[in-house]
Amino acid sequence: MLIPLIVLCVMMPVVLLRNRAPRVLHPDRLWIMPAIVLPLIGLGLWGSQFEPGVSHAPFGVIGWSLLLIGLLLGAAFGWQRGRMVTIEKTPEGVLKAQASPLAVLLIIAVFVARSALRPWTEAHAAEWHMSPLAIGDAFLMFAVGMIVAQRIEMYIRAKRIQHGGTDAHVEPVPS
Length: 175
What we know:
Blueprint: H1 2-18, E1 23-24, H2 32-48, H3 61-83, E2 86-89, E3 95-98, H4 101-124, H5 132-162
Antiparallel strand pairs: 1-3, 2-3
């Protein structure tokens, strides 16, 4: 249980330092992260059925509803997180993006909430007539929704900006 928290403590300074300056944004490459993460999460969902000590009964309506809720909440968070990314267009026409510190804090909050709630949700899953596996998988579906929606939102804004459109989230680059 401490390993995820240790990883978080090691990775967060790296992420925060990396996001200090805007980075070049290639809208045509925004599909790469979802293309990597989706199969990995799919593998995680498939592999979770082999977790020892967990009921592997097929999900009922509540379990599938929980997965859908996780996906939809993740998409909403991802869309908002994508909106928090500042996109700048340089005089040369290069797009630069910088994640908001608030967006990074959002990821930390979700990660901490998942780690903190996991023992409690697993202990009470039977009372709620849910599979503990469905609860864990809902967090994975949350991640899928968040990653995909963030990239879609950023792609839409970046293409609009690239083609001369305006965007409320664009900040002018000082000349």
